[in-house]
């Protein structure tokens, strides 16, 4: 299978030795997205604003890969505070429809650049 790097200016540029996403066959692996505005590379303020921006970033990468947020089969979520879990669910409901993808959510000690939520995604495009 061929391996293709996915990149879009509609999501924050990679700030390290990684790609926004990598497509192998029909599967796309999207690197963890933080709540950065892709135009300013500044974090949004607060959990809800960062979570909403994360979804916008993921949507842009999904589209650049030839799919959509509806093609995501798995989300891995890292939160700096599990007390934000209920607010996280609200953002998921606002952006997804049933049947929902698989998901894991864990609390971590810290995230890069002071972020409060990071979400990585796997999508399958038929």
UniProtKB/TrEMBL annotation:
InterPro entries, sorted: RidA, RidA_CS, RutC-like_sf, YjgF/YER057c/UK114
Domain of life: Bacteria
Pfam family, one: Ribonuc_L-PSP
PANTHER family in the cross-refs: 2-IMINOBUTANOATE/2-IMINOPROPANOATE DEAMINASE RIDA, 2-IMINOBUTANOATE_2-IMINOPROPANOATE DEAMINASE
Family the entry assigns: Belongs to the RutC family.
Entry protein name: RidA family protein
